[in-house]
Structures are given as structure tokens and as C-alpha cells.
Amino acid sequence: MLELLRVLFVTIVAFAVTLPAPRIVPLPPPEAGTLRWRAGVGVAHSNPLHFDWPLARPGWFHNWDFDIHTLAGGYHTPLPRFALAGAEQALGMAFAPLIRTLGGVVDYPPARITALARRYPGLAWIVGNEPDIRTQDWATPAEYARAYHLAYTAIKAGDPTATVVAGNISQVTPLRLRYLDAVRTAYRLQFGAEMPVDVWGVHLYILPEAGAWGAGLPPGQEDHAALGVTWGVAAHDELALLAEQVTAMRRWLAGHGAQATPLWVTEYGILLPAELGFTPARVARFLTASMNYFVTATDPALGLPQDDQRLVQRWVWFSTYTPEYPAGNLFDAHGAPTPIMAAYAEFLGGRERGREGDREPTPNSPSPP
């Protein structure tokens, strides 16, 4: 029986390696300031090689993990895609590690983080994933400040050139800006210095903070529930509310003397299902409109001076494929593009043809990951 199983395993592996692999047209990594450098995607539960990417594809991604070696595997079939492990660079999509900080605990030993930062210099490292959400990296301001300090120190010890992205709250509201204020205060109290931040990251979901569903109240803000937003289902894809969040975050940065700090949208998209009205056509319209906004929105009083006063420098769409939140999926379970991916590719290809929002980097442009 053991011999039979061994032969069966060898046969499966050989079959996996010899079957046709996904068609990947190689692309170089995008240069800083170009459209593909700005445009990103969250690769949930998988290696990006699982998917049949069109030529017009995003230029960077994260996968809610920090270990680059996890890219050698994946959770999906078909098996032939595993044979391409190590070829991620052919996609021309830069990887941004993400360090989880649940309860103020960094999820990997600092020495391991330092070693990886040293081995892969120049990356952008995202610290925390929605520390303001109970089902994600829920952490009090003091806990997040402690975890951020540990991660930041470990990353910079291995690579002083690394870019560290702080915050990454679920949405930008008065309550959640209060949370970020508390994080900065907690950092100052614990470490006797201002919180060092290369980039501020936010998510831009549109969810209620009060009621039976939504984002809920962030840690430490229970006494301020009256400030919570009451956005309903119909508002989930309102571009005006997305833009309002970006402006609020930029205003917060300017108020703290950080207008010159880049702002990245490290996750956003549509979480609500088609059964509530979020059909592929509607989601595709939101994707296109929101990305057009990211590319074009400027403000001399609030925007990044070294990026032509743009309000947003980079963004990540959620996601490639997530069964739990299928409305925004760029691909199906077999790795084939959906109409949402078609809209993303059309956005990238159309703007590149028109050279709109795609420019040569200027001095002091944000460094690519």
C-alpha cells in the first residue's frame, strides 16, 4: 500500500509539472510614479501565479503575509501553477510584506523580520491589518504602538532603505482618526519620541460604525459611539464618501505636520454581495471611478508636494479571489479573469495609451517597494 501511494504521489507531481502552465507575458517592474507602480492588488489565500493575468496588470501586491517564501506555495488548484514557484518576478508585480499585529503581538520573531529585510532590501513593509477591527488585528492604541515600534525597529535594522507603512485602519472616520491620535500619543509615551512613519496607510471601506453590522467601534472609543457614522448598504460604493475619507486623512496629516508623507490605500473594494445589488457591472463602475479619482485628485493645500499635490500615491484593490467576499473578485476559483479584472485592465491600458496619470518620477518621488 505504501509503495502504491508513493507511485501515485510521483505520478501526480509529474502530471502537475508537465501540464500547461498559465500564460504569463513577462513585464519589468514598474518605475516609481508610473501608473502600474500606483496600482496594486491584494492576493488573498494564494500565490499570484495562480491567476491568468492580462498584459495590463497591477504593479504591486501584498498577500496579508510577510514571508516572501510563502510565494512558493498556494492553496488553490490546479497543481501545475506550483511548478512556476519562484517565477513571480516575471509578473512585474512587486511584493509588499505585511506584518500582522493582533493584540499588539508581532506575528513573527523580530530576528526573522530583520533577516528577511536584509536579504530583500528596498521593499515596502505594511505593519498591521485593520487594528481597529475585532475580526482582524484588533489592538488598543498602546498595543498597536508597541507592535509598530518592534516591527519598525526590526525592519530598519535589516534594511535602512525599507519603506514602513503605518496605520492601515479599516476606514477614515472621526472615530478612527481619534484612534490614530491615540496611537501617536501612546507611542510618544512609551518610547519618548514621535512615531517614525515613512508612509501612512488606510483602507477605504464604507461601513456603518453603529448597529448590528459594519466596522464597529475602534478600541478605546466606546465612550464616543455618538460620533460613529451610520452609512448604510446603498452607500457602500458612493464615490463621494470614498473621496471624503481621503480628504479627511490628508487633512489629519497636514494637521500633524505630515503633509509631505505619502498616503497609500493599502486595501479597498466591495465587500457586500450581488444579492444586495452589487452586481459585476456596478462593482466595475466603482473600480474605474475610484481609480480615476486616485490618479487625478489633487489639492495644493493637502496633497503630497513631491507628487504633483496628489492626495493618494498608491492603492490596493481587494482582491484577486476570496470566496467569502466574491463581489470584487478579479478572478474565479480557476484563475480565469472576471469582468472586474477586465475593468481593471481596461483602466490601466486606457490610461497608459493616453499617458494620463502615468508619468516619469520626479525628484523625491515616493520610493517603489
- Residue runs with pLDDT of under 50 for 5 or more positions: 1-20, 72-86, 356-369
What is the CA–CA distance across the termini? 50 Å
> What spatial order of strands do you see in the largest sheet?
3-2-1-9-8-7-6-5-4
Number of helices: 8
User: From N to C, what is the helix and strand string?
Assistant: HHEEEEHEHEHEHEHEH
Largest sheet: 9 strands, parallel
- Which overall shape is indicated by the principal axes computed on the Cα atoms? globular
Mean pLDDT: 86
Measured as a percent range, the helix fraction is 25-40%
Radius of gyration: 21 Å
Count of domains: 1
Entry summary:
By secondary structure, the protein is an alpha/beta fold. Helices cover 32% and strands 11% of the residues.
What does this structure look like?
This protein has 369 residues and is α/β, with parallel strands linked by helices. The chain has one domain (28-354): Alpha-Beta Barrel (TIM Barrel), CATH 3.20.20.80. The protein is built from eight helices and nine strands. The protein has helices spanning 2-18, 35-38, 110-119, 141-158, 174-191, 239-255, 280-296, 339-354; strands spanning 39-42, 60-62, 94-95, 98-99, 124-127, 163-169, 199-203, 263-269, 314-318. A nine-stranded parallel β-sheet has the order 3-2-1-9-8-7-6-5-4. Strand 5, helix 4 and strand 6 form a beta-alpha-beta unit. The longest helix has 18 residues, at 141-158. The radius of gyration is 21 Å and the shape is globular. The N and C termini lie far apart (50 Å). Mean pLDDT is 86; it is low at 1-20, 72-86 and 356-369.
